[in-house]
């Protein structure tokens, strides 16, 4: 299968690429932008022309795989902040952490992802095993539990996953992206761990201050019961479920059309589904549906509805019902869910990429977390089929980074990318040795310190380096200071300068940087 | 190319696999271990038999790619500690951090790794670009610099890299493993950034307390000058260099044999090389070699030797000469080095894997860090060939983990895998709602807290959970406490119990856990 890239000249990805190209930009935008970009983009990505030596293009487009990105130091500083918030929450809820390899045996991933399986990256057969890059962290987690015969664990896992999807960088959709997963495995009483997962979503999205959000919940058993009650044949449950899942991106008319004309469902069944999937509410909706003549006859639907009711009672105790909506249109694409499912969406319009892509974004601001219960997955890896019930949530952190980056851009505060507390500088020539000796003392004392890698740097350029990278202090050595056995400590912000003995210097640096 | 796995029945990997298999172990070791293992191992890894349903074997061997490992929570706790030490050192030296994708365009990696290129993992051609998993972090760094036209940066990068090498788990050699890289890019005065890299190796290896170590240094220019002086033809420099690099694993006789019989070098040239590569020393050796009649006529060798001399003068100021050895046998395998090269080895015998593999380990305890100067690499990615001089070091952290794990195993201290401060427990039935309310309050106050996911857990099993996972405090709710409006706080270690009001409880938990 060849993915069809660059078919749209106004594709934000295409424009993004153009924006990245400094030298190329002016030339391109002098002409008809969309046409030229379309052409260039196609040319770049066509294998046969890969070795065309067009100097203006080569350094940008040919260097990085499509749909991936480097993180520069500023982005890393933001990423670290987001991870710290997420990890702090996971730890507050008592989770351990594990790690698994970036690739799995191909068969480990087979039959777990439904229609999305086509997006899995395979490794080349170089002799040995057939391997694939992980598609999520859930299947590796289940494999880990089965392999180690673990029946109880609460763990988080933060790592990159891989999907050969059509990337859109401005919307935070990449082919390589981080997931932050939190899962609870074990045989417990109904809905208690499930409720904690939703509590965690609520805490993290609130703390990150991304704007208002909703957490939609539904249950696979309710969906299946609903499909049965609406007259969907058993063997069409999964595929109709996939179509319902598109309701956040497509109108009901288009979804119905796919059900009837592509998937061969009767129009009557589709219309019945249409009634249900328009329903939203809270605990009250679950209670009402338990009385619904169609659903109440279906055992699966009833147990799902009772559990949703129970869930809401726990969510009230966790004080998170303000953001949670029971939404019958929520389906989730993956095959492995067996019970409760949920998805968090940011509801504030205009958060990201709107300048390029407003129309599309107004339909769906986008999901930033999702998950559910998967009680059968671990058993698929156990030779005796022993089940380990699991529930978990995954944060699609890339989109969150995109929003945080935009916030940092528009903020007045400068993002520091190092933590250097003091630059060891010299006021005259031939003092490299003295600078190296002093910085060695500072490092030994655990102080974050730098010297410039020049024999004889100018004092001005040393001070400029501090201004640029936000270093708050300069320890200046001159001939006079050496004679007096002191070091001049300069505060960059105020230009205040005081001489200190070597012993006092370290104390003073500590004092000043712990204050900050 | 097919890698030849499992050819050795006493291979530590094979035995390691056997040790991992609980159920299988007893059966295997009842028979002749090496023969059975050999057979089973071969059977498992042969593609054609992959789907054999042997229940005793399947859950262990078929589940994880060869040469990779999962990290369990205990290993992750140790890993976090190591990373914290490494990152703290990098930050102390003023480094920023970046990240790059796990795969690069295949052509990005082509021609950078010499004979090791055969170990690169390629992705399957699924339409689109040809991709490979990164082999190290240095080439992606150079690509990043060229692509973003960066001429000055001091950055660290901690990430996994991939090599289709013959794995040996007991010796900490994997196909997926972490590297911790620190590099300084920019046009600076000679040997100042180079010396800081060695200072960092010294600091990190000292702080991790891995036992005694040596940092060997040499210079590619000295090697090339030496090859020229010994009569090695120009076009054989790189391949002879690769052979010299094997001196840490092979005897001089075997190395000479490879030079003469495989690579077609004259015996006379090989013997001359043999004299040089046996030399070790410090600044004095550099000074002596500058007077050597053969070497002193070679310009390259002289500039290398002068720089090594200068390097040692900086290393003295950095107070690290106790561990640094100028060693003419150090060659390093990679193609891209242009100047100074170095490698840190642990010199303490018997650190790892010796029970299984003593003979091999006594030859080389193993390199834990390596690096050097690569002034030409960035230019290979720049359309105009603009060079950015770079020097850096990479820590092979997997081997360090192995040692730290062994230290943790033999230590009496239990490694905690969560940071939970308090378990919210109940003394009677029907108090789930009260527990959920209280834990919500604690989370809100930023306290790391848990409840057991049962409606009516027994108090004893709640207390046992604390003992097992090292949770220091229990907040106990009972009917009497609820009536009195208090919570009983129990200290797990001392069994001391005191009642607190809700407001005081949080303060008391904070006080007790900040003390710990």
From TrEMBL, chains A, B:
SUPFAM superfamilies: Class II aaRS ABD-related (SSF52954), Class II aaRS and biotin synthetases (SSF55681). One of its GO terms (cellular component) is cytosol. Keywords: Aminoacyl-tRNA synthetase, ATP-binding, Ligase, Nucleotide-binding, Protein biosynthesis. Residues 67-404 form the Aminoacyl-transfer RNA synthetases class-II family profile domain. GO terms for biological process: histidyl-tRNA aminoacylation; mitochondrial translation. Belongs to the class-II aminoacyl-tRNA synthetase family. This is histidine--tRNA ligase. It comes from Nothobranchius furzeri.
């Amino acid at each position: 299968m060849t993915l069809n890239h660059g078919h749209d000249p106004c594709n934000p990805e295409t424009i993004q690429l153009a924006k990245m190209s400094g030298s190329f930009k002016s030339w391109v935008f002098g002409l008809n932008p969309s046409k030229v970009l379309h052409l260039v983009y196609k040319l770049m990505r066509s294998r046969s022309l890969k070795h065309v030596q067009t100097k203006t293009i080569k350094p940008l487009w040919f260097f990085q795989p499509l749909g991936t990105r480097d993180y520069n130091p500023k982005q890393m500083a933001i990423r670290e902040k987001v991870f710290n918030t997420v990890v702090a929450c996971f730890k507050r809820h008592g989770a351990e952490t594990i790690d698994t390899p970036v690739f799995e045996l191909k068969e480990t991933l087979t039959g777990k992802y439904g229609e999305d399986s086509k997006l899995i990256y395979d490794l080349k057969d170089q002799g040995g095993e057939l391997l694939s890059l992980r598609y999520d962290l859930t299947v590796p987690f289940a494999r880990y539990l089965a392999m180690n015969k673990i029946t109880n664990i609460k763990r988080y896992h933060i790592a990159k996953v891989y999907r050969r999807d059509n990337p859109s960088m401005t919307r935070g959709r990449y082919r390589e992206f981080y997931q932050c997963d939190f899962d609870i495995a074990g045989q417990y009483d109904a809905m208690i761990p499930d409720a904690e997962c939703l509590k965690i979503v609520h805490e993290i999205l609130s703390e990150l201050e991304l704007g208002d959000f909703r957490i939609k919940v539904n249950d696979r058993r309710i969906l299946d019961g609903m499909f049965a009650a609406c007259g969907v044949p058993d063997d069409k449950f999964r595929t109709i479920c996939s179509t319902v899942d598109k309701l956040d991106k497509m109108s009901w008319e288009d979804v119905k059309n796919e059900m009837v004309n592509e998937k061969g469902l009767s129009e009557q069944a589709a219309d019945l589904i249409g009634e249900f999937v328009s329903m939203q509410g809270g605990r009250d909706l679950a209670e009402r549906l338990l009385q619904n003549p169609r659903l109440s006859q279906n055992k699966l639907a009833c147990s799902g509805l009772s559990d949703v009711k129970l869930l809401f009672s726990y969510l009230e105790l966790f004080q998170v019902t303000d953001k949670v909506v029971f939404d019958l249109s929520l389906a989730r694409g993956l095959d492995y869910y067996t019970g409760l499912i949920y998805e968090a969406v940011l509801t504030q319009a205009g958060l990201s990429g709107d300048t390029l892509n407003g129309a599309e974004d107004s339909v769906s601001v986008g999901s930033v977390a999702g998950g559910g219960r998967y009680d059968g997955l671990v058993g698929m890896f156990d030779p005796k089929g022993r089940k380990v019930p699991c529930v978990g949530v995954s944060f699609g952190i890339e989109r969150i980074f995109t929003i945080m980056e935009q916030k940092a851009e528009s903020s007045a505060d400068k993002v520091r990318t190092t933590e250097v507390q003091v630059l060891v500088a010299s006021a005259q020539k031939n003092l490299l040795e003295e600078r190296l000796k002093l910085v060695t003392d500072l490092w030994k004392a655990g102080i974050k310190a730098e010297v410039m890698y020049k024999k004889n740097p100018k004092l001005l350029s040393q001070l400029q380096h501090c201004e640029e990278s936000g270093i708050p202090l300069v320890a200046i050595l001159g001939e006079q200071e050496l004679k007096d056995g002191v070091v001049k400590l300069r505060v960059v912000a105020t230009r205040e300068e005081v001489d200190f003995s070597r012993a006092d210097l370290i104390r003073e640096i500590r004092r000043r940087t712990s204050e900050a």
